[in-house]
Structures are given as structure tokens and as C-alpha cells.
Amino acid sequence: MRLGFYNLQGGTGKTTVAINLAYYLSEKAKTIYIDCDLYAGTSGILFGYENDPHNLNSYLSGNSSLDEVIHTYNNLAIIPSDVSPDAFNADMDFERFAEMVDILEETYDIIIFDLPPNITEGNLLFSSIDKKLINKMIIVGEDSIPGIVNTLKTQELLTAIGIGVTGTIINKYRGIVDFEDILDNVIALLPYDKKVEEQWALNKPVVEIKSKFGRELIYLAEDLAHVYIEKDLAAMRALKLAKELMGLAEDEE
């Protein structure tokens, strides 16, 4: 399953949500997290790979192999982006991204795409739109008037380009905006929590830290695993098995 996290607006906490959900889900299924923000990604900092030369940028530039750019944190596989100024100097081949995703799907049950907050050339969602790389999208909005406005714009954009929205997460929730009559399909309210900042200092996901945010995010991960993900995984595994059996039958002929 290919699950993306996106919002046109930056600063909503999308990376924190995507990383922590990916980390928690990796305990239940083979999961890989991809930091698709080629110019301003931060996952390398959280997981301690900021000085590693092998990342998504170097892979798309042809300077690293796929094996070299896949790092690990416990059960979670991670492809970070380049956090250095060199990210702006790379000449990247976006076709390699689509090929990479197809290869990863042979190994991983869940691919998490953490997408940058823009619609420019560097956004891999739009660079590969014809490939339909993502079959489910979660919008991460924040509890503010501009945040809700941009979440609505994001919903409209994804609908226009034919990408289905699984639901919307309202992050940094403090009861500021009454959005119940404005937004459809809100699947979680994640509270504003100062402890979220600790994950960057401790180099570990916030779900490993005792916090209100971590607790609510675990509830969300469990819901996603049961309601949205298990059915899809069962269908994909059945399809894969069917293809393998067909291949065996053809070999016998």
C-alpha cells in the first residue's frame, strides 16, 4: 500500500505525523518511510542520518544504489532526503523515483510518502502524477484559520488530480477553530504538545516518548491499521500470491 501525507501549507507537522505513524506501523507490517522533500527534508536529522551521503537525492542523481539509501531505525526502513545545501546542486532524474517505488513494493507492505508542501517541479507527487504512485492520501492540517483554509484547498487540489483522500488529521489541536461543519472526514485530532520537540533533540520518534501527542497518535495508528490498512494488505497479498501461482502454472506448461 502506498500512503502519502500532504498539505499545500508548510509547518502543519506533517513530517512528525508521517514519521511516527510509519514507525508505529512498522511493528505490524513491513514499512518504509520516504522523505520526499528533496530540498527541505528533516527526517535525516531526527534519525541521525544528516551526515550520511546516501539519501533520496543521491539516488535520483545516480550517485547511490537503492541498497545504500535505505537506512533503518528498529523495524522501520527509511530513505531520508539530503539535509545539506548540496541538495540544491543535484541533477535528479525523477523517472528513477517511479522505478524505485515499483521495486520497493516487492519488499514492503506499506510505503509512506512524506511530501513537501508545494506544487513545484521538486514535488515528487506532481513530477510523477501520471504514474499514480500514491493510492491513498492523508491530509495533515493544523488548528488555525489559515490552516483550515489551506486544508480545504489541498482537498480540492487532490480531488482535481484524481488522488483519493483517506482522511484529514487536524494537528496541534487546541480548540481554536470550529471546523466540524467545514471539513469532511476528519479522522483524528492530535493535541498541541510541547514534548513533540523532544524527538528532534533525542533522535527518536515521539511515540517512544510519554506524551499526549504520542498517545493519541498510537490510537490513530491502531485505527488506520484495522480500518484502512489490513483490508488493503490482505487484498495485495492475495493478488501477489495469485500472480505467483499463475507464474508457476505457466512454467509447468
From TrEMBL:
GO biological process: negative regulation of cell division
Record-linked Gene3D superfamilies: P-loop containing nucleotide triphosphate hydrolases
Pfam families: AAA_31 (PF13614)
Signal peptide positions (record): none
InterPro entries (UniProt xref): AAA_dom, P-loop_NTPase, ParA/MinD_ATPase
SUPFAM superfamilies: P-loop containing nucleoside triphosphate hydrolases (SSF52540)
Domain AAA: 5-119
GO MF terms, alphabetically ordered: ATP binding; ATP hydrolysis activity
Cellular-component GO terms for this entry: cytoplasmic side of plasma membrane; cytosol
PANTHER family: ATPASE INVOLVED IN CHROMOSOME PARTITIONING, PARA_MIND FAMILY, SEPTUM SITE-DETERMINING PROTEIN MIND HOMOLOG, CHLOROPLASTIC-RELATED
Protein name: AAA domain-containing protein
Organism in which the protein naturally occurs: Methanotorris igneus (strain DSM 5666 / JCM 11834 / Kol 5)
